[in-house]
């Protein structure tokens, strides 16, 4: 039997969230959190609408997933996010002890890899899933902004 | 004329917040944000009550101050926090472009200095203000927890 619940399957859901951000004139980043193949949080960047630098997609999904689970640790959960997390989001993910992080496009300027942010030792990382789609959305956003 | 608005003056307000966290059985960290000698945000750690790893004192104060100001950048603001910020909070402060951070006790395990988190180049740092008071509160908290 074919398993439909691939990383690409869930990243498509995160990309749908990123498109919602795009439509609201927000930097288009989307995130979801999954446990046992069930989506328990969906969010997209809302820093402009909420006037709040902390309103990154990942932060909202961490809070929402913890609410759903009734506990603050995200053990057994996977975060899918279209862009590599920043220092703040990687720092929050560190505290959450999340089991897996899957991201799309790399952020070579402000991503956690370049910035050297530490993740929890139990967290595994997968990168580059639907990276072109995520990067294209960012490029379209900033091209439109420059007009 | 004596200026009453010293770093110690404002750190005492942050310590009052930390004591409120202590009384709620939360790790006792408090924060305030000040602009032009006016306190525009007060908060204390609520990670247990809210079941949310992102509910650090600093994160709440960043959100509250941006709400007060009607804009997400905290230029001209000073954060007073009783404990050295972690990676997540330092990462949020980086995005906020806050002008000054004053902290009390150092966190030699999980503070941003040890972790290597980058702050905004325009942010100045002052450390060690009422550090003993902040550290004593933490020690009392963890001593009580071990009982």
Automatic annotation (TrEMBL), chains A, B:
Active site: 58 (proton donor)
Names of required cofactors: Zn(2+)
Keyword Calcium: no
PROSITE patterns to which the protein is assigned, alphabetical: CYT_DCMP_DEAMINASES_2
CMP/dCMP-type deaminase domain boundaries: 5-115
Binding site for Zn(2+): 56, 86, 89
Pfam families, alphabetized: dCMP_cyt_deam_1
Reaction(s) the record says it catalyses: adenosine(34) in tRNA + H2O + H(+) = inosine(34) in tRNA + NH4(+)
Cofactor binding summary note: Binds 1 zinc ion per subunit.
Coiled coil start-end: none
Keyword tRNA processing: yes
Keywords: Hydrolase, Metal-binding, tRNA processing, Zinc
EC numbers on record: 3.5.4.33
Protein family according to the UniProt entry: Belongs to the cytidine and deoxycytidylate deaminase family.
Subunit record text: Homodimer.
Its biological purpose: Catalyzes the deamination of adenosine to inosine at the wobble position 34 of tRNA(Arg2).
Protein name: tRNA-specific adenosine deaminase
